[in-house]
Design brief:
heterodimer, A: mainly alpha, Outer Surface Protein A, domain 3, three-stranded antiparallel β-sheet, two-stranded antiparallel ribbon, 12 helices, B: about 270 residues, eight-stranded parallel barrel, about 40% helix
Chain lengths: ~250, ~270
């Protein structure tokens, strides 16, 4: 890095005097134009990416929090729609936000929603293709989630809080102490987030981890012995989120 | 003929796709569509099916200290291959250091050493992208000491040594001239006319602290009349060139932006008629 580049980088992070060899003293403060442009673009990117966190904190508070994150976390690459990968963990480490211990989970769900929106266009295998498999082939088959469908699990319920914040309804802000698995999938040009029943969550988790469909069925039955596997599989196929993986296309 | 175009905003995708007025084209920051799939790319496919497209990069950091970002070049190349833009452009600026990128266009120190180094980087980028680039002049806020070259002279050397073209941002010329005390007309006259492949127009604002003494390239309002006057001067010098209206903040309704575009288009028609 040249001396000029080094000095400019230092000036951006708070020491304008570093540029004294290249800029007349009265003008050193102008480096703030660059610093402010960077800060406001990063804050705007976070605002767009984390709408539920914005709703939870309020816009002014969010901008302060986001600016603090942005100061210490320049993006890894120039694509700002991808910015904020570490925001949830950073929120979790902020003592000042400890009262809002559900904030990091909101950020995780916001971030996953955006990842799903921009995920690759893998096509789900149709119900007809699954129906054409023999029972034996079906039980040994593996089906993974398409890129635009992802699971996320929380120890306490989150979806009702997330929904209430985004719709501004203010209802459902209590988190219940029960685990919740959500399926986040792209539908048309938007993203749908739905809570899965325990057996469905267990089934799809096995699929996502690369297990066989029979393995997924076993886990679903263990989770809920009353599960109607035919109905469950039919429901899964209706979500158009699985891609059949043949033996020549190992996971 | 490629006439006057608009910077494409996501909220205008549908209107842009359906707008078939002659000569209209759109420009996109490739960084905004470097996604794996989904609605952004699908919408851009629809716009591209109806209009010529320009890809205007902001993240290559051609003047930067870090090695060129190879994954970024690959993503950029994939978009060029997919969307076949009629022009691909970047900036004489830097934005990447110590493995991170910042969303701004930082100034280059125009020394002989930097000229050689930046030419090598432009060469490498053009090879990786399979296209000649147009290089844009950024806005200047700091009157840096230590340049060996005037900006127009430096840009002309880039053209000579790398075969790149130039994207002249007339708002940046105006803002820089006001901020650091240069002469915009002399700046325009010093460029090699044949190298100019595109012209940008945008709005600027005054710095909240320093007022009119420091103009900010804010892209958040209509093009200033004095920048329109520079367009007249530039087209008189160079003849018709693709002209783009940029708006990135306080984005108004499509009809309002297209009205500004129509003014640029009418000006281009005068030039063609002459």
């Amino acid at each position: 890095m040249s001396a000029f580049h080094q000095a400019f980088a230092e000036a951006l992070t708070g020491d304008p005097e570093a540029l004294a060899a290249w800029v007349q003293t009265p003008d050193l403060a102008i480096v703030a134009v660059y610093r402010n442009t960077i800060a406001s673009a990063l804050v705007e990117a976070l605002e767009a990416a984390f709408p539920a966190v914005v709703a939870a904190l309020g816009s002014d508070n969010f901008r302060q929090v986001a600016a603090a994150f942005a100061r210490d976390h320049y993006p890894a690459d120039p694509m700002l729609h991808d910015y904020g990968d570490g925001f949830a963990d950073w929120l979790a480490a902020q003592d000042a936000l400890a009262d809002m211990d559900w904030l990091p989970d909101l950020a995780r769900l916001d971030h996953l929603r955006l990842s799903v929106l921009n995920a690759a266009d893998g096509v789900a295998t149709s119900a007809e293709v699954f129906a054409d498999l023999s029972p034996e082939a079906l039980s040994h088959a593996r089906a993974r989630l398409i890129p635009a469908a992802r699971l996320i699990q929380f120890d306490t319920t989150l979806l009702s809080v997330w929904d209430a914040l985004l719709t501004g309804e203010g209802e459902g802000l209590e988190r219940r102490p029960e685990s919740e698995t959500l399926l986040v999938r792209r539908v048309g040009e938007g993203v749908e987030v739905r809570r899965l029943d325990a057996d469905m969550a267990a089934f799809l988790s096995v699929c996502a981890d690369g297990g066989t469909l029979s393995g997924a069925a076993e886990v679903a039955l263990t989770c809920d012995p009353t599960t109607d596997l035919t109905a469950l599989f039919s429901h899964v196929l209706g979500l158009t989120c699985l891609q059949l993986s043949t033996e020549s296309d190992p996971l | 003929m490629i006439g006057a175009g608009l910077g494409l905003k996501p909220q205008h995708y549908t209107e842009a796709t359906g707008d078939r007025r002659p000569g209209l084209w759109f420009e996109v920051h490739p960084e905004n569509v470097m996604v794996e799939g989904g609605p952004r790319l699908a919408a851009l496919e629809r716009v591209r099916a109806a209009h010529p497209l320009s890809l205007h990069g902001v993240g290559l950091s051609l003047g930067g200290p870090d090695p060129l970002d190879q994954p970024h070049l690959k993503r950029f190349r994939a978009l060029i291959d997919r969307f076949a833009p009629f022009v691909v452009s970047e900036h004489l600026a830097w934005s990447r250091f110590e493995g991170h990128s910042v969303p701004d266009l930082l100034p280059v120190l125009r020394t002989s050493v930097e000229l050689q180094r930046i030419c090598e980087r432009i060469d490498a980028a053009q090879t990786a992208l399979g296209r000649a680039l147009l290089i844009e002049n950024p806005s200047h806020y700091l009157n840096l000491r230590g340049h060996d070259y005037e900006e127009a002279e430096f840009l002309s050397e880039l053209v000579k040594r790398t075969g790149c073209g130039l994207l002249v941002d007339l708002n940046n010329v105006f803002v820089s001239a006001r901020n650091i005390g240069s002469d915009p007309l002399a700046w325009l006259q010093a460029l090699p006319a044949q190298a100019v492949g595109e012209i940008h127009l945008a709005g600027h604002s005054q710095d909240p602290v320093r007022g009119a003494a420091l103009l900010i390239d804010s892209h958040d309002r209509p093009v200033d009349e004095r920048v329109w006057a520079l367009l007249d001067a530039a087209l008189d010098l160079w003849g018709p060139r693709p002209v783009l209206i940029e708006r990135d903040g306080e984005v108004p309704a499509y009809v309002e932006l297209i009205a500004e575009r129509e003014r640029a288009q009418a000006r281009l028609h005068l030039e063609v008629a002459a």
